[in-house]
């Protein structure tokens, strides 16, 4: 009897395997198809001074797309022009300034003409200040939200009519910390907002043939995760705290935070930025792009699974990885 049950179970496994393998092959084939006539398609990328945006601009330029790279600095524009083809155009952009966003959109409208804009990649963002919530001021939140969230919305709305013409793409760079809030400060708040904007935009734009994708990177070695800047940020936040808040945390908390930050970042950060760039490129050039892309082993196997844990378990996990201290109060 036991032998018969084992044989039935084995058949069930084989049937399941027989369904999974063809599905995986179909999904791979569907994802491998690419759009044609790249030379006629314009792609607008924000935050191209360095990091993901800079690499994506260069990568798409080599593939034949007409790249419009928005940089915050003149130096970023000049360096990008020197290493790319004549197809690539640069412009100055401050995503937190609506006048700058509108000026860029007017220039892009002239560049793309009646064909419209194939894709916009909202990549520009900042990560500092970052620290415990009671170390922050409302201005810290407003300044980061102006770039990471309002900037994404402003840039998207400014070129959405052009994307409708091309039935193109909107690619928003969020973070795994738009799915799970593992630390205090405005960064996670801003990325949760990007996720929400992305989802509502995807639903609203589907009738127009526009595809909206969200990129959710884990920890990568960029200016955003520079440990020197992060440690200096913690020191500056500590120095401006009222004395009573410092006493709440104790004199050893700052150094413990710095030591843990360096340890975690050295362990988690990935130096291969192309993992994220390939996700961005697929969202732009695939005939059937995904709605979400998780880039990095830590995103796939730790942060995203943690987002689905019961709140009590997730809280215990994250508190266990915070600097230890006994509050004075």
Automatic annotation (TrEMBL):
The record's annotation in Pfam families points to:
adh_short
UniProt cross-references to PROSITE patterns, sorted A to Z? ADH_SHORT (PS00061)
TM segments? 12-29
Keywords recorded for this protein, A-Z? Membrane, Oxidoreductase, Transmembrane, Transmembrane helix
The record's listing under InterPro entries reads: NAD(P)-bd_dom_sf (IPR036291), Sc_DH/Rdtase_CS (IPR020904), SDR_fam (IPR002347)
Supply one GO molecular-function term: oxidoreductase activity
Might you name a Gene Ontology BP term for this protein? steroid metabolic process
Q: Which family does it belong to?
A: Belongs to the short-chain dehydrogenases/reductases (SDR) family.
* Protein name, entry field: Retinol dehydrogenase 7-like
Organism, by scientific name, is Champsocephalus gunnari
Q: What is the lineage of its organism?
A: Eukaryota, Metazoa, Chordata, Craniata, Vertebrata
């Amino acid at each position: 009897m036991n032998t018969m049950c084992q044989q039935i179970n084995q058949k069930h496994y084989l049937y399941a395997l027989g369904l999974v393998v063809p599905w995986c092959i179909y999904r791979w084939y569907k994802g491998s198809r690419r759009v044609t006539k790249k030379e006629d398609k314009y792609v607008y990328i924000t935050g191209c001074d360095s990091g993901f945006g800079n690499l994506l601009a260069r990568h798409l330029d080599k593939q034949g797309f007409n790249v419009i790279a928005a940089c915050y600095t003149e130096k970023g524009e000049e360096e990008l022009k020197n290493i790319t083809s004549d197809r690539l155009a640069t412009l100055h952009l401050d995503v937190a300034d609506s006048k700058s966003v509108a000026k860029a959109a007017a220039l892009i409208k002239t560049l793309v003409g009646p064909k419209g804009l194939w894709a916009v990649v909202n990549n520009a963002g900042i990560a500092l200040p970052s620290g415990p919530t009671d170390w922050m001021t409302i201005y810290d939140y407003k300044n980061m939200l102006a770039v990471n969230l309002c900037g994404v919305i402003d840039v998207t709305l400014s070129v959405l009519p052009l994307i409708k013409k091309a039935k193109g793409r909107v690619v928003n760079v969020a973070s795994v910390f738009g799915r799970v809030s593992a630390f205090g400060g405005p960064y996670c708040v801003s990325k949760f907002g990007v996720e929400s904007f992305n989802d509502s935009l995807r639903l609203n734009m589907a009738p127009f043939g526009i595809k909206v994708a969200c990129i959710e990177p884990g920890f990568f070695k960029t200016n955003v995760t520079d440990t020197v800047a992060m440690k200096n940020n913690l020191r500056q936040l500590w120095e401006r705290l009222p004395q009573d808040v410092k006493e709440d945390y104790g004199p050893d908390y700052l150094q413990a935070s710095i030591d843990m930050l360096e340890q975690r970042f050295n362990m988690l950060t990935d130096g291969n930025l192309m993992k994220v760039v390939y996700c961005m490129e697929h969202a732009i050039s695939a005939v059937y792009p995904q709605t979400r892309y998780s880039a990095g082993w830590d995103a796939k196997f730790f942060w995203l699974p943690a987002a689905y844990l019961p709140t009590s378990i997730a809280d215990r996990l994250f508190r266990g990885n915070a600097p230890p201290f006994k509050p004075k109060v």
